[in-house]
Amino acid sequence: MIRTEHLSDSVTLHLGDCRDVLPTLARADAIVTDPPYGMNAAIGGITAGKSSRWALSSAQSAWAEKPQSWDAEAPPIVLEFPKMADQIIVWGGQFFAMPPARGWLVWNKIIRNFSSSVCELAWTNLEKPVDCFDYSHGQLASEGKFHPTQKPLPLMGWCVRKTTGAVLDPFMGSGTTGVAAVRAGRPFTGVEIVSEYFDVARRRISDALRAPDLFVEQPARAEKPAELDLTTGRP
């Protein structure tokens, strides 16, 4: 069952499985997303936190040769993204059978010698050179950690600014991409399957709508014409 909430005229969130929601949506300008790709499954036998939610068989998965603890649903729907949007940014894109691309994005986490990757990659269909964003993994704590695979808000803001138009995130998680889109003054549609994360995303994006970025130009308001002083003929 899909639950839809309109936070504003330009921001809509869907609680439900993106496989059910995406066919009901119009083509997007841009998809900016961080889908489950089971990276942790390859580290010391750890099972990826999202894997149990995606119950396709290995025969349906683009990862048929990968460990079964890796997420099985993400690849099929990710491979459909080029049919759904003109501009696409997919974190973890190296794990999917995406077409060759020149516009890869790199998140350099700066901190070295810890258990996770020291950088992460995003596949894009953008006709731009490879680009890199330097942001310490350790700074995530200062933003508030709401999701086990949460990306930093400055990183997702950087991604959003590389695209134009309305932004769609089929794997919304805790809503970081949505917050980045709202702060950039962009329409946003998010889809999340887990109700707890959906509620966090709704709160974070609602807060962003109430506190717009002062550096983003807001729609101009109609100004009241100046009244003339009838004695001097001046405003």
Strand content: 15-25%
Domain module count: 1
Q: What is the strand tally?
A: 9
CATH topology: Rossmann fold
- What is the arithmetic mean of pLDDT? 79
> How large is the count of helical segments?
6
Write out the strand line-up for the largest beta sheet, numbering strands in chain order: 1-2-9-8-3-4-6-5-7
Which overall shape is indicated by the principal axes computed on the Cα atoms?
globular
State the CATH superfamily name: Vaccinia Virus protein VP39
Explain how this protein is built.
With 235 residues, the protein is of the alpha/beta class. It has one domain (3-210): 3-Layer(aba) Sandwich (Rossmann fold), CATH 3.40.50.150. It has six helices and nine strands, in the order ββαβαββββααβαβα. The chain has helices at 18-21, 74-78, 140-143, 153-161, 176-183, 195-210; strands spanning 3-8, 11-15, 28-33, 85-91, 105-108, 119-124, 131-134, 167-169, 188-192. A nine-stranded mixed beta sheet has the order 1-2-9-8-3-4-6-5-7, with helices on one face. Strand 3 (28-33), helix 2 and strand 4 (85-91) form a beta-alpha-beta unit. Helix 4 crosses helix 5 (176-183) and helix 5 runs parallel beside helix 6 (195-210). The longest helix has 16 residues, at 195-210. It is globular. The termini are far apart. Residues 39-70 and 217-228 have low confidence and may be disordered.
